[in-house]
Structures
1.
Amino acid sequence: GDSVTQMEGPVTLSEEAFLTINCTYTATGYPSLFWYVQYPGEGLQLLLKATKADDKGSNKGFEATYRKETTSFHLEKGSVQVSDSAVYFCALTLWSGGGADGLTFGKGTHLIIQP
Amino acid sequence: SQTIHQWPATLVQPVGSPLSLECTVEGTSNPNLYWYRQAAGRGLQLLFYSVGIGQISSEVPQNLSASRPQDRQFILSSKKLLLSDSGFYLCAWRPRQGNNSPLHFGNGTRLTVT
């Protein structure tokens, strides 16, 4: 079946450090890929997405590129802030045109940014 | 624009008591609706999904149930809560015809069973 693997952390960085959170996937077709962010006590917010190979999603300084050859969708940010502390989820979906097709999520990566 | 509402935000219930969590979506029609659970320190588990009124699919057998009495209303219930039902419950929606579209989540309900 489809699956998403990401580093679970916690990942602890200093403010202004470079961030990479790895995400790899296994899927039977050509999925769309997403990164969600969950701040403490809140629901999940869509951070960025990519729907086909070589697409780059970006938002709030975060970027991720859909790499079909390595089945990866790593999240990066050049300079993190304390406010980026949260749990980040990588997810995929495969649309079959009629079913409910909920997303398949990774287990989440807890990111802690220290001032 | 579309919005999704969940309530209550937090809930503390004794073991054996009933449960009813409600979720409503505004600004769209015929959405697919989902209930997820997030246990402490763990990932997201899909519990139920619905593609229409009265149509519920269960992903994980347990003592929870779901209902969709109206197009944009999704309810999660239990007749008797267990300690293991504690967790963070998230409702989500996506367009019925969404082509690989993302899920949009509510703010969640923190349930503590004591």
2.
Amino acid sequence: NAGVTQTPKFRILKIGQSMTLQCTQDMNHNYMYWYRQDPGMGLKLIYYSVGAGITDKGEVPNGYNVSRSTTEDFPLRLELAAPSQTSVYFCASSYSTGANVLTFGAGSRLTVL
Amino acid sequence: KQEVTQIPAALSVPEGENLVLNCSFTDSAIYNLQWFRQDPGKGLTSLLLIQSSQREQTSGRLNASLDKSSGRSTLYIAASQPGDSATYLCAVPPPTMDTGRRALTFGSGTRLQVQP
């Protein structure tokens, strides 16, 4: 049982480049989330999805895009990378909102130079 | 807007001590609260989930309490061990009347170091 799988684990980007962080879960969870964690800070919500075809913005969506074409996959797209997007990104999923335990991926560490 | 605060930001204790981590939240209309553990360079692992109808939840040496009326939760770790060294975060779902935002709000965490 893989849980939530994120790729890549590490990536260095140059300013202005684009990339996609992949997230896959095999638990048939309806809800999926992308958070970013800056050093010494809590997690801030970027985007979330309540099911295939439905996405919504979180606290800090600017500079990011998501899609949810299947229940399993929830990729996060960074367009025109900026140094402010240097962070650790976590994907998570749950069966429903809030009431159930959240399962996290191991994280993707992104550096923009 | 829900805000979650954790004090202290960092804590260092000798092995064997009992300790308490604090979490406070501004909107008490929540239906549960979760405590997570994060090891360096790793993702978050859920430790305990307390429903609003519960006042305490226990797992091994961990005991979490929830006082909605005062907007506080505590995580008690008994007989601390070096393996307990990690960052501990608390998180709450949106207030029950807030149907617009459907994800957890996290505190910034308490970084715990247990000295052997």
